[in-house]
Amino acid sequence: MIEQLPIINLLLLLTMALVIPLFKKRSINTTTTIGFIVLVVVLISSILILNHVHVNGSFVYRFGNYSNVFGIELLINSFSAFFTLFIIALVIPVYLYSTGDATEGVAEKEYGRYYILLFILLFALLGIVYTNDLFNTYVFMEILAITTCSIISIKRKKENYTSAFRYVMLNELGSLSYLFGVALLYMITGYTNIDLVSQSLQGVWQLYQANIITAIGFMVVGIGIKAAIFPFHIWLPDAHSTAPSSSSAILSAIVIKAYVLLLVKVMFRVFGFDILDSFSIPGIITVIGATGMIMGSVFAIAQKDIKRMLGYSSVAQVGYMVLGLGLMSGLGMKAAFFHIVSHGMMKAALFLSVGIIIFHKKVRKVEDFIGLAYQMPFTMVVFSIAALGLIGIPITSGFVSKLNLGLAIMDSGQWFFIAILILSGLLNAIYYLPIIINAFLKSRTETPQLMHLEKVPILMVVSCFFLGFAILAVGLFPNALLGLIEAAVQSFQ
Amino acid sequence: MNILELIIEHINYLGAAAVFVIGLYTVVNHTNFIKRIIGINIMGTGVFLFFIAIGNVVGGQPPIIDVNNPDVLFINPLPSTLILTGIVVVVSITVYSLSLVIRIYETYGTIDQEEIAKIQKRETDHD
Fold first, then answer.
1. How many CA atoms lie within 13 A of A138 on its CB side?
2. Which of A120, A191, A236, A282 has its CA 20 to 30 A from that of A372?
């Protein structure tokens, strides 16, 4: 029975997306309630899958029981089970938030469309993490590309159309580059299944070096465009800042992580250490990651719009993950995985708290944050927790991920990157601390009126608070999460 | 002479790669949105041709099983089926981006990247 759950998860999400139009005549609450039930069911089944994987080991699900030479298969191991659980668990607070502030700038009768896109997006995300087939991954990537772009352009504003168009063009460049890489691998091996490709590559890779280096280049660049790794990030700030707040949280916290996870799969499951090392790919990837860590923050300092600043901050944070992966060690991968989880929580909390501020005060410039904590204390507390987490202050989860990354760098002996890590943390502090200081310490002349504090739907504040709490909880007790991540890292060795 | 033979032997792969690069050039170099979408389609065609070229077997027949004569060398049908999926995907992306272009034309009155950038700059200065 448990073996059937992954496909049931996917089908539940897809079916939910398809039945939403049937409730068009009812109030939007019907849709959101049913959607919430579906998400909780998927969450429970993901927990069951993770438990099953830890007890009985990994398993594969084959569609129609075709052999894996022709057929599509889902691989459920401690890596995919853990990260699907992470995605669903992080989506639930964002979903609860979106029921309050469904989507600013969208007509009320179109809320249903937003949820259709959201559920198809989740379906594609889970698919990318589960699937064990390179071509199937391409199909899921394209589903994800269309839904993410539509979720940006759903807001009927001028700049949304242009940023969505730029996003769709770059997405398509990325997907087609990735597909070209898959074609080059298919040329050598004759398979698209990741396990079979990797087995055949291990035997013959010395004979086809030209093919393999081209394939690595195309695939890494293609995924890099979609994951907003530093030189390919130009679409991200526009796209993430113009999207509705709840979509920005999903795009920034989860969607780019799915591509980072795909990069992990391609690097470590398809090619493996020997091939990458012989082409000196790890050095290139660490340098790209380190440059991203610095440049993302440098761009973020210059921004006046708070959501654009958060977007550039995501570029910097993806650099941390890429650096961790480029170290090519178990410790580096562990640090990268932990940072995927902790950055997911922190960036979701930041976008949601900023979303509440935009919803309530209709301001989105950095200088408008002066004295805001007197009017919206709860929201600003969550914002500060998450921002301090990104800087790397102890007792937040960001500290644990930076600590792990530091340990991994020391283990690899490339001391130069320690300096980059510290510098990047300081740059984070340069643009987050002034906001916090302005909000809490600089008072406006008007006296705060307790009756008018935070007049926003309660679910929005609760979901935001939950994320802030989770950041502190993971920061104080990281061991349970580190155990799961350790198991996920083990599945690559 | 050797290189010439190499080129002739791999002309299908080289052609596909050339189509891919032409498409890439079109996407990157043009400011007109419709031309960019055309470029994406050319790129996609390049990848698809490359896949089909991989599936070719020298002297192979189309993979239709003849009951009377079962021992025929077939070409590999798997890349073709993969590419059918790929074509559908690129069509849907094209439709979506064309619908976006319609919206952009309705709001800005132009579909040229540079003119839109000018309009946007004017608007931000105006704020």
1. 29
2. A236
A81 band by pLDDT with thresholds 50, 70 and 90? very high
Given a contact cutoff of 8 angstroms between Cβ atoms, the answer to whether A68 and A106 are in contact is no
pTM of the model: 0.93
Structure tokens belonging to residue A423: 């510098």
Nearest to A168 among B100, B103, B116 (CB): B100
Relative to beta strand A59-62, strand A73-76 is antiparallel
Interchain contact B38–A (C-beta under 8 A):
no
Give which of A442, A424, A430, A427 is closest to A380, Cα–Cα. Answer: A442
Which of B36, B51, B101 lies nearest to residue A183, judging by beta carbons?
Answer: B51
Q: Which two tokens stand for residue B72?
A: 């025929």
By percentage, how much of chain A surpasses pLDDT 90? 32
Q: Which of B19, B80, B96 to mutate to test the interface with A (most CBs of A within 10 A)?
A: B96
ipTM: 0.93
More confident residue, A172 or A159: A172
For residue A455, the model assigns a pLDDT of: 67
pLDDT over 70 (residue B32)? yes
CA distance A178 to chain B (A): 10
Closest chain A CA to residue B98: A165
Among B54, B92, B104, the residue with its CB nearest the CB of A165 is: B104
Residue written as tokens 């980059």? A420
Q: Is A135 on the interface with B (CB under 8 A)?
A: yes
Six token digits for residue B18: 């050339």
Q: Tens digits of per-residue pLDDT, A404-438?
A: 999 999 988 888 889 988 899 899 888 888 888 88
Nearest-by-Cβ selection for B40 from A146, A164, A172: A172
Q: Do A165 and B100 touch (CB under 8 A)?
A: yes
Query: What 3-state class would DSSP assign to A74?
Result: strand
pLDDT in tens, B5-21: 888 888 888 999 999 99
Structure tokens at B29: 């170099």
